[in-house]
Specification:
- The protein is built from 19 helices and no strands.
- By secondary structure, the chain is mostly helical.
- Helix 2 runs parallel beside helix 4 and helix 3 packs antiparallel against helix 6.
- The chain is globular, with a radius of gyration of 22 Å.
- The structure holds beta-D-glucopyranose.
- Beta-D-glucopyranose (BGC) binds next to helix 5, helix 12 and helix 17.
- Beta-D-glucopyranose binds next to helix 5, helix 12 and helix 17.
Length: 471
């Protein structure tokens, strides 16, 4: 997910709305549905994969392709969506995303061979890539400034809710082993999203960019109510557009900008190397490794993973602006390293007692808690805060693209690692990464809490060390 262009203050994740206009709420919910679809697509494969593998008699490599083809599409979608959302506008980009969601999920549900399934997953990926860039951008542009942070958080939350919902529906459908129905659930949600997007207004900011100020005023009148507010916001949009985006040129000319782009890429690689998606995509398989042999048990454990993922996201929302980014990241990486290490220790044993099996599940949940309260949301927040205004679109496109590529590499290598290294060593590897990220956080990640984006930009461009561009 990409956190969008913001104006002068650090993202206020916790700021609550005083009164939210009904229209804004509807528009926000509709756009946040893109997050739900994002989550559905991430989560659906974990439950469906064992059945798909059985139907098409697939080995590990082909299964990895089915999982990771979506990330490949998403990386392409994320790269193309900066251009699309500028040319077509945010609404039409979302519409295109919605059509691709419907087409991709229908193709997956009807797939008659593994290759068709992979093609369907690439199309779905394109949709997720477009939605993961455009929806938060759109949300930030239609949200009144005082609730912008809250709206972006809702989008984050929707991703985790989407994952949970699809884990639940997978669990219900697993008795019959009907993977086509599992994937079909995504198709139905995609149709609802498509209908919803048709009712969305265009983003006022985009309309101003395209010299359609009268239409922008009309949309703002519907969303804001007071004429004074509408005119103030139009003026603000116009003044912020004075800063021309010249991302690639800036990247070539300015070494300081290259440093912030590099930090954005590193942050996203770190987020993926925590190992979160190993669990998101392969949870039932991991529970099988831990000795849960019935499909039902594996699926219910997976549902609990989804639930912990949703609930722990509230910790980040509640504390990020109070404690700051770095303390939460330290705690998160520490918890993740401990969780992964404990799972590795358990998987190293030949036979687990029932008590040890439950301990393994508890440790996986601890890992999920560590991720969802820290690196899950915070990496996105940081990625949006560290880029200078002139290069924000470019910087965020690069980091979002990296997220999907790293996601793909993790998804595409897990089963091979499991076979090559064994469960214990694979999980030790991820535990090691998380421990190393505590050190990376100490020496490279800035604390951006309560610092304005202008201050961050000023320090970055003055050549300060990355760790010092915040407070
Ligand atoms: C990550 C995704 C992950 C999701 C899990 C997001 O922040 O970018 O890769 O699947 O969190 O909740």
């Amino acid at each position: 997910m990409v956190t969008p262009n913001t104006s002068s203050t650090a993202l206020p994740l916790t700021r609550a709305p005083s009164s939210v206009n009904f229209q804004v709420a509807c528009v926000g919910i509709l756009a946040a549905l893109a997050g739900l679809l994002f989550g559905l697509d991430i989560g659906v494969i974990s439950g469906a994969l064992p059945f798909i593998a059985a139907t098409f008699r697939l080995g590990d490599v082909m299964q990895e392709w089915i999982v990771s083809s979506m990330m490949f599409g998403a990386a392409l979608g994320a790269v193309g969506s900066g251009w699309l959302s500028f040319r077509l506008g945010r609404k039409k980009s979302l519409l295109l995303g919605a059509v691709l969601f419907v087409a991709g999920s229908a193709l997956c549900a009807l797939a008659w061979s593994a290759n068709i399934m992979i093609a369907g997953r690439v199309v779905l990926g394109l949709a997720v890539g477009i939605a993961s860039y455009t929806a938060p951008l759109y949300l930030s542009e239609i949200a009144p400034q005082r609730i912008r942070g809250a709206m972006i958080s809702v989008y984050q939350l929707m991703i985790t809710i989407g994952i949970l919902v699809v884990y639940l529906s997978n669990t219900q459908l697993s008795a019959s082993g009907n993977w086509r129905a599992m994937v079909g659930v995504v198709a139905v949600s995609a149709v609802l999203f498509l209908l919803g997007v048709l009712c969305l207004p265009d983003s006022p900011r985009w309309l101003v960019i395209r010299q359609r100020k009268a239409e922008a005023r009309h949309v703002l009148q519907r969303l804001r109510g007071s004429d004074e507010q509408v005119e103030a916001e139009l003026a603000e949009i116009e003044s912020s557009l004075q800063v021309k985006q010249r991302g690639f040129q800036l990247f070539r000319e300015n070494a300081n900008f290259r440093r912030s782009v590099g930090l954005g890429l590193a942050l996203q690689v770190m987020q993926q190397l925590t190992g979160i998606n190993v669990i998101m995509y392969y949870a039932p398989r991991i529970f099988a490794e831990a000795g849960f042999h019935s499909t039902r048990d594996q699926m219910w454990c997976t549902v609990i993973v989804g639930l912990v993922n949703v609930l722990s996201t509230f910790i980040a929302i509640g504390f990020v602006d109070r404690w700051g980014r770095k303390p939460i990241l330290y705690a998160g990486f520490f918890i993740m390293a401990a969780g992964m290490g404990a799972v590795a220790m358990m998987l190293g044993q030949t036979q687990l007692s029932v008590g040890e099996q439950y301990f393994t599940v508890a440790m996986l949940l601890l890992f999920i808690l560590g991720f969802a309260m820290s690196a899950g949301p915070l990496i996105w927040v940081l990625c949006s805060e560290i880029q200078p205004l002139q290069g924000r679109d470019f910087g965020i496109t690069c980091s979002t693209f990296t997220n999907w590529i790293a996601n793909m590499i993790v998804g595409a290598s897990f089963l091979s690692l499991l076979h090559g290294l064994g469960g214990a060593h694979t999980f030790w590897l991820y535990a090691g990464f998380n421990a190393a990220f505590i050190v990376v956080t100490r020496y490279f990640i800035p604390e951006t809490r309560g610092v304005s984006l202008e201050q961050i930009e000023g320090k970055l461009m003055a050549g300060k060390a990355l760790v010092d561009i915040g407070r």
